[in-house]
Amino acid sequence: MSDQEIVELLATGRLRVELDTGHVFAPKSNTPDKPCGAVTSKGYLRVCVNVHGRQRHFMAHRIVWVAANGPVPGGHTVDHINTLKADNRLCNLEAVTARENTRRATVNGLYAHLGRRDGIRDARGRFGKKRAG
Predict the structure, then answer these.
(1) Helix spans in 12-119 (H)
(2) Which of 3, 8, 42, 71 has the least C-beta neighbours within 10 A?
(3) What's the average model confidence in pLDDT over 77-87?
(4) What is the per-residue pLDDT across 38-67, written as a single tens digit (0 to 9) for each?
(5) How far apart are CA 57 and CA 98, in angstroms?
(6) Rounded distance, CA 2 to CA 129, Å?
């Protein structure tokens, strides 16, 4: 559903994409020449657009991919090849399976130091922090 909304926004001129820089623009906004998007806590760029009176959020890398290649194939996600989540140039994006995306993130160390799981469980079987000492 969101890919179809992106296609419609691009077709009606509500969004414009520069594929070589990866910037997304909203030509009908107050600042049409300024790239839009805000950095999320995970480092991705998220674009907010009003669609049928409701605020919708789209990831900038997905907008760039859809603008160049159409909707992302089923069962695939858009991966940043160089692991820089704000680098949305088309040459840095690739559609891969979720399994491959996770494998690449693991190999590149993007999952290091996330969460509290260290392999130790308490008496109830819950994961916890390592005990000091």
Answers:
(1) 60-69, 98-107
(2) 42
(3) 93
(4) 999 889 999 999 888 899 999 999 999 999
(5) 21
(6) 39
